[in-house]
Design a protein that fits this description.
By secondary structure, the chain is an all-alpha fold. The protein has one domain (2-88). Helix content is 76%, strand content 0%. The chain contains three helices and no strands. The chain has helices spanning 2-20, 29-40, 52-88.
Length: 90
């Protein structure tokens, strides 16, 4: 049985090499779908990059909010553990 497995691997490797060396490669289903859609209704121009000021402001703001939430949770856990330890010592 191991011989058949080795044969399958060799055949699969040959098929992959043959497919990779093909001169014409068929586009993917998504590429064909987009080409058909854009033939009738081409997409409008899109800038290469978005507005960097808007992205920087949004990222900066969300960073502070997430930092405040994490620090608040850590402080709440520390206070809760301190309270439980205080109650348990009596």
């Amino acid at each position: 049985m191991p011989e058949r497995h080795e044969q399958d691997d060799q055949e699969r490797e040959f098929d992959l090499k043959w497919a990779d060396n093909a001169e014409h490669k068929e586009p993917s289903a998504r590429a064909r779908m987009l080409a058909a859609r854009w033939k009738e209704n081409p997409p409008g121009p899109v800038p290469f990059r978005g507005d960097p000021d808007h992205v920087a402001r949004q990222r900066h703001r969300s960073g502070w909010v997430s930092t405040a939430i994490v620090l608040g949770c850590v402080a709440a856990v520390i206070l809760l553990l301190g309270y439980l330890n205080f109650r348990g010592s009596y």
